[in-house]
Specification:
about 10% helix, Paraoxonase1, hydrolase, Neuraminidase, 6-blade_b-propeller_TolB-like, protein homodimerization activity, mainly beta, globular, metal-binding
Length: about 350
Amino acid sequence: MAKLISLTLLGMGLALFRNHQSSYQTRLNALREVQPIELPNCNLVKGIETGSEDLEILPNGLAFISSGLKYPGIKSFNPNSPGKILLMDLNEEDPTVLELGITGSKFDLSSFNPHGISTFTDEDNAMYLLVVNHPDAKSTVELFKFQEEEKSLLHLKTIRHKLLPNLNDIVAVGPEHFYATNDHYFLDSYLRSWEVYLGLAWSYVVYYSPSEVRVVAEGFDFANGINISPDGKYVYIAELLAHKIHVYEKHANWTLTPLKSLDFNTLVDNISVDPETGDLWVGCHPNGMKIFFYDSENPPASEVLRIQNILTEEPKVTQVYAENGTVLQGSTVASVYKGKLLIGTVFHKALYCEL
């Protein structure tokens, strides 16, 4: 009888394991291969070899790029060097990148590990750059002031909070006010791996201000990219392993109300919003298995989606670019400026194309 019970429990355990394994592979889109969609006149950006995980383009054509991310379980081509913020002027005929110097006596450059970024320009046209940072595998938000003439960043403040433990992306709504995604619930690496494998969907979004910090949305299977509509009325959140983008209505008290969700056949990463049209441009991972289990002989592909009229009953989704990893590995972000498309990656290069 005892053996029968043991065999029954073993069988139940194996069945449960197979179900979770199947779900895990589905959430990673493990079987998908991309059909290439090329764009005319694409060039790799000189000076970017170790990632361009997030980027933001200002209305004047200056692009800020975070480079050199070291993220647990993800490939890095330069694991022993600190990350950096790059500047690119898209008004130039053949734009190149410049590493921005960072000043400020209390900032530790040696452990700089930038992830998501966002800008905010105040009434006096002072421009602030907020950067998710992972020094020594922790999570902070670094507040910088951009000094355009010196082409440098002045470090003003480091923000830490117990509700900001596993930061991924950020969207600024003031110099020290932002929404941010936590892509995991647990801090411990072992528990984090089980959280992802089991699909617990415990990650969440936080609103931060100097006077108030609170969770405003939760229940995500790896909350990733976040951005806001040009009129400031709606917040967009990418749920990586559920293959969804959620639309939330933003209220005057900074709370969020879910409005709608869109489903995709790809892992959606960072979201850029065209300030003129309101279109969403999304860097995607067609096959997440290739991102989390890197193989140089079978590298992760890249994909860019454009979403038009997202607030209507019939949004238009267009696959703008797709490539199997021979040119660009692991796209995370895409943004447009004057008919040009800039695509960034988690640990690889960056691509600049004509649309």
